[in-house]
Amino acid sequence: MRTVYGIMIFIMILSAAAVSAYAAEGEKLNVDITTYDGRKVMVKDGMVFYTPLPVTFAPAVPSGYCISLDDGETFSAYTDIADTVTLYPDDDTSPTGRWQLKFAAKTPDGGLLESDTYRVCFDTAAPEIEFEDPEAVGGWLTHDEKVHFTLSDENGLSRISAKCGDTVLYEMHRKDDEPAGQCSMELLLTDTGRPYNNVEMVCYDVAGNRSDASFEYRYDSSCPVIYVQGILSGDAYDRSAVLEAAASDRDSDVFISYTAERRIGDRLIKTVATTDGPQTRIDFTEDGKYFIRLWAEDSAGNCSPEITRSFSVDTTPPTVSIGGVTDSVDRRDPTEVTVDVGDNIYEGTMVNIKLTKTALLKNENIPIEGYELMADHDIRTVNINSDGDYLLEVSAADAAGNVTQELRRFRIDSTAPDILISGLDEGDITNALPTLRFSVGEMFYESTVMSSILEKKEAKGYVVAESKDRVMKAANDHMDIEVQKEGEYRLTCIAADRSGNTARSHINFKVDRTPPVISDLSDIDNKYFRSFSLPAALSSLVSDASGYTADAYIDDGKFGEKDVVINEGKYVLTIIAEDAASNLSEASASFIVDHTSPQVVLGGFDRNGNIKKGSQVTVSLAEPGDRLLTVKFNGRNVPVSSDNTASFTVDEYGSYTIAVMAEDAAANITDTEIHASCYMDAGPLGGYIRSEKTIEAAPDGPEKNNVDIAGLLIGLSTVLSGTFGLAFRTFLRH
Questions:
Q1: In terms of DSSP H, where are the helices of 556-603?
Q2: How far apart are CA 353 and CA 404, in angstroms?
Q3: By C-alpha distance, which of 661, 688, 664, 666 is closest to 677?
Q4: Is 456 a residue whose pLDDT tops 60?
Q5: What are residue 437's phi and psi, to 5 degrees?
Q6: In this structure, how many other beta carbons lie within 10 angstroms of the beta carbon of residue 649?
Q7: Alpha helices in 458-570 (DSSP H)
Q8: How far apart, in Å, do the first and last CA atoms of the chain sit?
Q9: How far apart are CA 160 and CA 204, in angstroms?
């Protein structure tokens, strides 16, 4: 825009020029439009005229004009009177290059005649041609290769054409009502019969700007050939696998492409690769199950048929884990053993389980069915609930030949040891120092036996006298404990096997080497008794700490606690006692049963039983064991000498009384008075008169020529009277 004026100035100039424009009502002012190269163009009202060249507008009469640079939102005021107005692409007044222009002229009647609104867009940029795959252009292409490219222009495209020689590959003409912008283009390249083919592309935008592009291609319809070796489908390798491939093509260069899918469990790893040449070596070092697709492609894009290989690389042995038991450990409860097997490539992995049981020297194979892994991880359980030594062998072999084996040796022992004690039984009492022997009934042995001898002490109860431990390793193994002294004991024994089963046993016993004690029989031995019975119950006469049995015997007959001996005579009492430990005690005593009173023997009398004056009278007893208690002569005590006699002299004539009291060892008493007289000549009542029947008279000495028959009879009767009483021997039982 060279000059812009206000609308008022335009009206003043228009009036001064007195220019008149004549037109019918509704007509518009005509304007000629030409481009810089002299070409006239027609710009319709409301349409945009795209051009890269300056544009000149020439109204039919000199006219004023106004311009809008904001797409018709606002126009400048009509200004200047000009014959022509020229717009230039490089005019910075419109940075976008867009203009709107209209003209106006005054009519003779004072009206205003306006032209159409002319829209001009200056566009000097050529369209852009972009190939989607630039490497495909000018490369080796097959007969059905499609080339894709994009054409774009800011204001729109008007015409596109692509030719290979005289062959039109693509052509497009834009219509006025079609939107401008960009379009995608696809060329199908075909065989023209020439070894090389040239494609020419031309593109025009709406402003007439042009872009050209060209490329060459070579037609190649033959497919390459590919060869593969080193790996076969279905194989499993326990080491790295190597695949070698080679390809060839008769018309063009060739290269090999492949995809490798590696699966580990549920994880899929995919590799896509293309080699630089016709040969390749592919190393498969990582474990996995592979699926390989290989093909060869030449420079023209022809592909060989695919070659596939399905195989596995498995350098990792299966994992085997045995749970629930520990090697060489005993258990006392039923056990659930778990067999956990895993393999990263589980297809074709076989698991075998072997269980061997040994019990009571007998081997037994327990069948367990093998199986094939159906997942990368498998857990099975084996329930074992009977006693025995077990060997569990688990082996897993995969398809590649990797083998893993796991062993477990263990023992199930739920039975406690059986403690056997020999030598004594519970409650035994023995008089021998015993040797106690321990042994253990156990299926597996190797049991530890802990024993203690406890001795009973009155003040402290039981105290440990001896302890002893031993491991029983065989059926005939044993342990002995000796008791060294008598006493009351408790033997305790605890046995524990390797599995922790325990058993307890105990016995109480006594060692009694002391015979029963029988009370002293000195009060009986050589003693006299009127009648005899046991002085006390046998339980009072015998004592023993262990208990006992006792019997009494008189001579050879058994004598009870309520029996009585009344027959006179000499007897032997024997008491025999045996305690619970079989210790024997025996005690004996002799005794005499005597229930006859002592017999008094008088000396100094003549055969007639009289006492001569001056005679010495002696009083004694018939039995040496009898004892004079008192002797009185006419009421006067006569001393009893140490030899158990008494004597006195009769010096006067007269009647006398001799009182005698005597006692024998059986406590029989003689208490008698003897009436006698001292005489010159014996009368009819001469001699002595006894007042008790316990007197025995004996003459002083033998007088064979002067025998008084009557006195002798009296004396004899006296002796006999001393034994008056029971003349037989018997026992009385109550």
A1: none
A2: 12
A3: 688
A4: yes
A5: -115, 130
A6: 12
A7: 538-541
A8: 176
A9: 6
Task: Answer yes or no: is pLDDT of 455 > 70.
Answer: yes
Q: In this predicted structure, what is the pLDDT of residue 143?
A: 58
Q: Are the C-beta atoms of 408 and 339 separated by less than 8 Å?
A: no
Residue 351 and residue 378 in contact, taking contact as beta carbons nearer than 8 Å:
yes
User: Using CA atoms, how far apart are residues 3 and 93, in angstroms rounded to an integer?
Assistant: 12
Tokens of 605: 């009398």
**C-beta separation of 106 from 77 below 8 A:** no
The string of DSSP letters for 77-106 reads PPEEEES-EEE-TT-TTSTT-EEEEEEEEE
Please, which pLDDT band fits residue 142 given cuts at 50, 70 and 90? low
Beta-bridged to residue 280, according to DSSP, are 245
What is the C-alpha to C-alpha distance for residues 482 and 451, in angstroms, rounded to an integer?
12
**What is d(CA 446, CA 611) in angstroms, rounded to the nearest whole number?**
107
What integer best gives the mean pLDDT of the chain? 81
Cβ distance 648 to 633 under 8 Å? yes
Residue of 600, 594, 687 whose CA lies nearest to 640:
600
309: closest CA among 342, 282, 338?
282
Three-class SS of 326-391: CCCEEECCCEEEEEEEECCCCCCCEEEEEEEEEECCEEEEEECCCEECCCCEEEEEEEECCCEEEE
pTM of the model: 0.47
What digits encode the pLDDT tens for the residues 528-567?
888 899 988 888 889 887 788 899 999 989 999 889 998 9
Which amino acid is residue 667, in one-letter code? Answer: A
3-state helix/strand/coil string of 618-654: EEEECCCCCEEEEEEECCEEECCCCCCCEEEECCCCE
pLDDT digits (tens, 9 = 90+) for 151-194: 888 888 888 898 888 888 888 887 765 656 778 888 887 777 77
Residue type, 419: I
Which residue type sits at 565? V
- Distance of alpha carbon 730 from alpha carbon 593, whole angstroms: 11
pLDDT of residue 667: 85
Q: Looking at 189-231, which runs of residues are DSSP E strands?
A: 196-205, 210-219, 225-229
